[in-house]
Amino acid sequence: MNIVTVVKYKVKDGYVDDFIKAINEYDYSKALSMRLISTSDNEFISIMEYDEIDKTGDDEVDGVNWLDTVEHMLEFYGESRTDSCSGLVLAAYDQ
Question: Which of 24, 35, 63, 89 could make a disulfide contact with 2, Cβ separation 3.0–4.6 Å?
Fold first, then answer.
């Protein structure tokens, strides 16, 4: 079963272009796919799919290190830089 991680970011005014550039420069080689969607002004959601649970754990370590480099661009969700969740893929459609 594949695993999907979903991470929501709220970006400070004036940092949207820098944030998108930084997220595009991240190394996604452990993931099968990544999508970044814009849900409203300055709010984004990244969706990544993996074929092994170990790869999500490895990527989480790299992701936390990456977050340290963009933290100054982010509005916090309470005390967290992101709002995130992950889970097993139970149904899918691919064209």
Answer: 89
Q: Which residues pair with 94 in a beta bridge?
A: none
What are the backbone dihedrals phi and psi of residue 2, each rounded to the nearest 5 degrees, phi first? -85, 160
Under 8 Å between Cβ of 28 and 56: no
* pLDDT digit string, tens, across residues 37-50: 999 999 999 999 99
Amino acid (1-letter code) at residue 75: E
3 state SS of 27? coil
CA separation for the pair 13, 51 (Å, rounded): 35
Query: Rounded distance, CA 74 to CA 86, Å?
Result: 21
- 50 burial type by CB count under 10 A (0-12 exposed, 13-18 middle, 19+ buried): buried
Q: Which amino acid appears at position 46 of this protein?
A: S
Q: At which residue do the structure tokens 């661009």 appear? A: 73
Task: Summarize pLDDT for 61-79 with one digit per residue, the tens.
Answer: 899 999 999 999 999 999 9
